[in-house]
Amino acid sequence: MELHSDETLWYFFKKGEANGFSLLFKKYYPQLHVYGLKLSNNREITEDCLQNFFIQLFEEREKQNEIKNLKAYLFVSFKRRLIKQLQKKQKNIPISEAQLFKSNFTFSAEEISIHQEMHFKCTSTLAQLINNLSPRQKEVLYLKYYSEMKSSDIAEVMDMNYQSVLNVLQKALSKLRKVSENQQIKNILKKN
């Protein structure tokens, strides 16, 4: 099964496809797990809550509406569930988000190092992807995002009409999205 976006992943998940659930779980469980640990500082509660969250998500999948941003939806829903679980453990003493962040949300040197390494790899990959675009697409991207020019100014610089600039920009971004999504899916499927 080839998935190109969170929308497609959500579609297959809602239909009850085993691969849809498996890919959703593999893609978001690690991220939600780390986030939960940051909030709760309690591995047992975080893992129990996260497992129950995915079980409930699966059981109620057909009731779910369309979701515009799957990642945000999962993070918000899991956070709410975890806060409720932590409040139960604290004998119903309200725990505000500020209290959670103040006491538990810390970063280790290793996390920062890993993030920097991932950022470098992403930047390197993005450079490779951009370099595979046509010269005209590369120039439009450069002028738009690195020189921060408006599309009308790019049209003047490149001696193109305004609509042509928009078309070239759209094609370049679509190509980058398609290639990067295909690469993400390949990486996910390799982990299976």
Automatic annotation (TrEMBL):
Residues 126-176 form the RNA polymerase sigma factor 70 region 4 type domain. It comes from the Bacteria. Residues 24-91 form the RNA polymerase sigma-70 region domain. Gene3D superfamilies: 1.10.1740.10, Winged helix-like DNA-binding domain superfamily/Winged helix DNA-binding domain (1.10.10.10). Keywords: Sigma factor, Transcription, Transcription regulation. Belongs to the sigma-70 factor family. ECF subfamily. This is RNA polymerase sigma factor, sigma-70 family.
